[in-house]
Amino acid sequence: MTQHAPRLIADIGGTNARFSLVFPGSSEPRNTLVLACDDYKGLAEAATAYLEQAAPPVRPDRGAFAVASPVLGDRVEMTNRDWTFSIAELRDRLHLERLEVVNDFIAVALSIPLLDDGHKVAVGGGGPAFGAPIAVLGPGTGLGVAALFSTDTGWHPIPTEGGHATMPAANEREARILDWLRGRYGHVSAERLLSGPGMINLYEALTALEGKPPTALSPHELTDRAQAGEPLAGEALTMFFAMLGTVAGNLALTLGARGGVLIAGGIVPHLLAPFLASDFRRRFEDKGRFRPYLEAIPVHVITHPYPAFVGLAGLVA
Q1: Is there a single domain that holds both residue 136 and residue 172?
Q2: CA 90/CA 45 separation, integer angstroms
Q3: pLDDT at 316 exceeding the cut of 90
Q4: Does residue 216 fall inside a structural domain?
């Protein structure tokens, strides 16, 4: 193992593959590049392309990758990208002595104790209960969910597939949306609505319920239309934030997350103003007799551009 060799870290989502280097004695990512997954056959090809572009003076000897999928053994199948790989084969192909691969929201969860207040925006609630569990969720290409528990040896992250739990309806309008989507998908998970593709599902369901012809939009185009005042696009975005509040409140109750709820992902931090003005917090707390319990729980949006890198840096220290 080379004393001064950098460590290769990567956050691999369904849309983008983000790579960086961390050097011994520092946790600050350097030579960060964001590559479009569509441009590469697989993760090995994307990582190789990054190393060729980054051109580190000494080749990395260790790596830590966060991937948007369960990591249950050596073979990893990504959930929202048709990439499959063997961790051992990827390690050897990249000439690494060690490669850690974890769920992407494990990496985000590991970052939480290391983030300062300048990388978080408060969304109501009181202070965190000391040592209490912390919940993490974030809509992006999918919906990531994880938990963080305090132990005698420090904070311990727990991976989950909570994004694939069944999406509940909080009112009649949402019930009609879910009925329509069940006709398309059968099971309607939270991720089917609370993600980039989910936002489009919401919009298409609303246009169908209003008897309007469907319009092919990207999530970016939808949010632009919503902020420009288009009624159905605006309703889709409003409903998106409200439903996220319901799911976040359910998660806080399920985990007993009195240590706080952190929202990450590629959507909310980029729509912070409409999110803060939305019904999210009201819906988060709207749990009947347990409203006071949830009113006390702090929620923060993570605004660090690469929180997974912060968590990954600790895995290759």
Answers
A1: yes
A2: 10
A3: no
A4: yes
- Identify whether 280 is part of a domain: yes
Residues 279 and 154 both lie in one domain: yes
Domain co-membership, 21 together with 43: yes
What digits encode the pLDDT tens for the residues 118-170?
Answer: 999 999 999 999 999 999 999 998 999 999 999 999 899 998 999 999 999 99
Domain housing 209: 125-297
- Residues 248-273 have a mean pLDDT of 97
What CATH number has the domain bearing residue 267? 3.40.367.20
Same domain? 169 vs 283: yes
CA distance 64 to 77: 17
Tens of pLDDT, residues 15-72: 899 999 998 877 788 899 999 999 999 999 999 999 999 887 778 999 999 998 889 9
Count of the separate structural domains present in the chain: 2
CB 46 within 8 A of CB 40: yes
Terminal-residue alpha carbon distance, the chain: 13
